[in-house]
Amino acid sequence: MLGGGGSTGNAWLIGVLAGLSDAGLDVTTADLTIGTSAGSTAAAQIAGASPTELFAAVLTGVPPRPAGPAGRPNRPVADHMDRMNRTIAAAVDAADMRRRMGAAALDRDAAADGSWQSQWRATVASRLPDRHWPHRRLLITAVDAATGEPVVFDSASGVDLVDAVAASCASGLPYRIGDGRYIDGGYRSNAENADLAAGYARVLVLSPFGGRSLHPVEWGTHLAAQVDELRACGSRVETIFPDGDSEHLFGTAAMDPSLRPPAARAGYDQGGALAERLTEFWR
Questions:
Q1: Who is most buried in 9, 31, 185, 266, counting CB within 10 A?
Q2: Closest CA to 143 of 209, 99, 77
Q3: E strand or H helix at 40
Q4: What is the mean pLDDT of the segment spanning 147-174?
């Protein structure tokens, strides 16, 4: 399970996978990989390149820091989180929240100039080493903006991998695929969507957001609730969260590309440190 977490979350995921791999544990050969938002990008990336190669690319491709005072929250991210909080406060449950998020995204899309779609697709495509669905089973999550219904894309969906990832990462404007328009897979349930791993013997969850959720606990959508349900049904579950020293790299800082290298290094160190314990679990 590769959870959402923005640009730094993607880098951290790659770092953890590379740290595990370099320490002798390759988890990219899992029977099922599930990617949500930034995790969908990571899931597609590891289908076309090794974690070690991807990790090296993060460290060498260092974009400049966005303009603005250092240490200030990223304004678009902060605005998005404000919208999320208002929407959640007005919603009666997760399904209602998804419908409201979809409707708001469609309203913003109606006021946009229409150029975003092609630009976003090109951006996503440039991040994928291989733009074809892998032979191993891969699920990419999204939400139908018109209905609020959860969507899960796979190789049998008739959707290009690039489009599936672009839809899963569409947290602002909706992404069009055919006649449908889709928004971020993190709105489906949470940033991890661990419930999709039901029935698997071993489940490894990598969560850049540390399992945190803005949803009310009574909605039952928190990662902890999904992990409890998986364990109650017989799955062994391990979770990996960013350590305390790297938590500042996420949240409102998650879209700062200049923080990708330190996020990747933090993940790499964690992966290496956890490899011995996780090897017994995984094998």
A1: 185
A2: 99
A3: helix 38-45
A4: 97
Of the candidates 37, 35, 117, the one whose C-alpha atom is nearest the C-alpha of residue 77 is 37
pTM comes to 0.94
CA atoms 190, 195, 197, 201: torsion sign: positive
Paired tokens of 64? 């400049």
State the DSSP H helix or E strand holding residue 180, giving kind and residue range, or none if neither: strand 180-184
126 included as an active-site residue? no
Tokens of 70: 């250092």
CA distances from 213 to 10, 25, 81, 155, 169 (A): 18, 29, 11, 29, 17
Interatomic CA distance for residues 281 and 283, integer angstroms: 6
The answer to whether 243 is a known catalytic residue is no
Out of 37, 168, 189, 207, the active site residue is: 37
Reported as type and span, the H/E element at residue 51 is helix 51-60
Dig out the tokens for 15 from the structure: 């770092």
Q: What is the 8-class DSSP label of residue 182?
A: E
pLDDT tens digits, 11-70: 999 999 999 999 999 999 999 999 999 999 999 999 999 999 999 999 998 555 544 444
Rounded CA gap, 266 and 255, in Å? 17
Q: Are 73 and 248 spatial neighbours (Cβ–Cβ below 8 Å)? A: no
Which position among 109, 144, 184, 256 bears the catalytic label? 184
